Amino acid sequence: MPINVPRPDEQAPGDFGPDECVGLSDPQARGEDIADAAFPRVGCARSMKDVTTGNFGLFIAYVLPGFTALWGLSYVSEPVRAWLGTGTANAPTVGGFLYVTLASVAAGMITSTLRWLLIDTLHHWTGIRLPRWDFSRLQENVTAFDVLIEIHYRHYQFHANMLVALAFAYAARRLSLGLWSPWIGWLDGGFILLVVVLFLGSRDTLAKYYARTARLLSDDGVPTQTATRRTRLPRPPAEPSGRQPRDIPFVG
Predict the structure, then answer these.
(1) If pLDDT is split at 50, 70 and 90, which confidence band does 245 have?
(2) Phi then psi for 199, rounded to 5 degrees?
(3) Domain limits of the chain?
(4) CA nearest to 153, candidates 215, 226, 68, 211
(5) How far apart are the C-alpha atoms of 67 and 105, rounded to whole Å?
(6) Average pLDDT, the chain
(7) Burial label, 191 (beta-carbon count in 10 A; 0-12, 13-18, 19+)
């Protein structure tokens, strides 16, 4: 069936033309092949969607927890308080926004390392085991594996990293108020409730990620690193003389 590609003068208002998408008129200068040049609007929409999807997972996994940890640090650090604009004298600035963005990424990476050291270890000790991944099967399942990372592991990183970041922010706030200051009350209760919810969410998402990637990248789909059950091979039929053959040893 022939496909009618509309001419530039037939585009509806708001549609992106080939030059409006990237600002260049030459398809080769834009790094496109002939197929992409023939369908400029479809290619532009696809690129915008890919960037949004990839950024969302990284944003919730690192930037949000990092910003939360940075917010907690502002209770004990005057420069960070100035970056966030929470001081009484200074309003947020462009430079402060840049510092906050870079510092949030760095704090998110540090938070993720602490998450690996603490939360991952706790989950593995309490029943969630690492899968037996066979990475020789990754090439044929790489797209599905990427999807599982985005819909499960990125959310696990958010829950667990945010748990660590909130614990740090709460400790910094208590330190700024004084270790022996009276308990605030409802704020402390809300913190404890939120920590429990994040912990349960991290446990659920990690278990689903391990189970579904194990089915994808292992022959037997067994999600845990437990020893396989040893089995006995069936005995062959008795010899004509009536003597039974020796037992066949265990294999496994």
Answers:
(1) low
(2) -65, -45
(3) 52-217
(4) 211
(5) 8
(6) 75
(7) middle
